Every structure is written in C-alpha cells, then in structure tokens.
Amino acid sequence: MPKKPAKYGLKIWATCDVKTSYAWRLQVYTGKETGRPAETNQGMRVVLEMTEGLQGNTVTCDNFFTSFGLSEELLRRKLALVGTIRRNKPELPPQLLQAKAREVFSSMFAFTKEHTLVSYVPRRGKNVLLLSTKHRDPGISDDTKRKPTVIQDYNRCKGGVDNLDKVVGTYSCRRRTNRWPLALFHNLLDVSLYNAFVLWTSINPSWKQQKGHRRRLFIEEVGDALVTPHVERRERLPRSSAAAALVAGARSAAAERGGACGSGLEEGPGGGACRRMCRRMCDCCRKRKVGSTCCKCGRFICKAHSLILCSLCST
C-alpha cells in the first residue's frame, strides 16, 4: 500500500473504542480468493461483520467504508453512522458537489428522514462531504472556521484505530521475522496486553496513577507473572552468569516468601561480576554505564576493570 506510512505487512481490520482505543474485534485481511473476481462493496461487508453484536452505538469510518446502503443496514441493526463519503457516490445531490463558487468555511446541508449530508469548504477548491444518521440539525460551531457539528464529531471519534497502532508500537514484543504467523502472533500479544491494561486501569483507576509510564510497568508485571512459575520450576541453571543469577535469585526469593518472586544480587557460577536489573556508571572509570557489579564489594564495574575467575580460584 504505497500511500500508507506502513507500506508492507499484514492488513488487519479493527473495531476500537473511541475513548480508550480498546480493540473490540480484529479481522485479518487474507486478500482476494484465487480464481474469483474482485470483491464488490468490500467496505460495507467489513463494517457489518466488524460491528456484529453491537447495538446503540455510533460507527465512525472513512470514505472507503461509508455508503448510503451501509447507513441503512446499520440503522436496521440500531447503529448510527458518521463518516466521510466519496464524491462519486450516485446518491449524492449534485448541488453538494459544486464547491468552486462557494465561500471558504461555508456549509451546505441535505436532509432526509433519517440521513444528513453536509458539504463543507475548508479552503478554496476543497470540498469535504460527510454522511450521518446521528445528526438531525444543521449545527455549526461559533469559531472562525464555522465547522459543522457533524465534522467536529467525526474529528473527535476518527482516531481510535490509529491510536491503537501508535500505542501498540510504543511498547511492543515484536521481533524481526520472515514467518508471517509469528508476526501475527506478536501483534496479537501486543493488542491483548493493551486491552488488558485498559481493563485493569478501568477497574483500578488509582493504580500507579502518579506514574507517567503506567503501561510499561503493567507490561513488566504481566511478564514477571508469566515467567516466574517457569523460572522457579527450572531444573538447571542457564549457562550465562547473568541468567543464572536471575534464576537463583527468583528461587531463593520464592523459598523465603513462600512462592513469591523477588529480584536480588546473586553470585553467578563463574564468580567475578554478576548482573543486576539496574545500570549505573562504572565506579572505576566513570565512563561507561554498566549493569554488572563486583560480587564482593557490590561496586558497578565495566569489562575493562573486571576479572574473570574459575570456580576453584574464586574460593
């Protein structure tokens, strides 16, 4: 998709909440079936499938999905529609399509019993068309741009899916891979973690409210809760001293606290320095930020000032 910021990848349709960007339903686009003609009214089919089971809500979508037939079908399902509409739709009145001789910031409305069409001119030669089954009056804002209420509601509600893409990309577990099932699984994990965070903060709104990175802390706690039982049941220590120290620390903390996981400083099997979760400047050179410390004095040291000993010499 050359006009999109993310030109390559898997395409997933999404239905999201406006306020929280909670992903209510996802659908993977698998492309055109082999040997069959191109799908017609794809936008209408996608919206009807993605909103199945909803009632009393307002669906906001762009001009790829919006059509008069879609609005009528959503009304039968007790759903309202607000969205931009393409000027090539045959149901549009020709008076709304003329924008050359109109004044900038002017609006023109057309009404039926259940539908509202608005044509707004934000700048000379530009015509914005919207269809709504939610609004019934020609409301216009009092500011200098005199935007219709339909456009203001559309601008307020249109960013749910885009915001989901943004927050999922901020904290992600994705890794570079050429296997599309694994890439899809990574995305499902990211979306599931965000949905869990939305539910958790809605139930516990005061949870770490003073922190500016609450979602990162939530993801870390979820990861610890998922990994800790496997770490405690692990029979052998890992080869690296850093991983071995974490496993040993988790085991000792679980033994002391009756199964609870803790993180602490433990000596690795190779002696010398072992890892901690925090990073500080080297106490010897003050040039490098490191996470390794001396097993005897606890000072932070870099590789240039550390010494590796075998298990026999360390004793």
Explain this structure.
The structure is a single chain. The protein has 315 residues and is α+β, with helices and mostly antiparallel strands. Helices cover 34% and strands 16% of the residues. It has a five-stranded mixed sheet with strand order 3-4-7-6-5, sandwiched between helices. Helix 5 packs across helix 6 (180-203). The longest helix has 24 residues, at 180-203. It is elongated. It contains nine helices and nine strands. Strand 5 and strand 6 (116-120) form a beta hairpin.
The end-to-end span amounts to 63 Å
Number of helices: 9
Structural class, please? alpha+beta
How would you spell out the order of helices and strands? EEHEHEHEEEHHHHHEEH
Biggest sheet, spatial arrangement of strands: 3-4-7-6-5
The global form is elongated
Record keyword descriptors for this entry.
five-stranded mixed beta sheet, alpha+beta
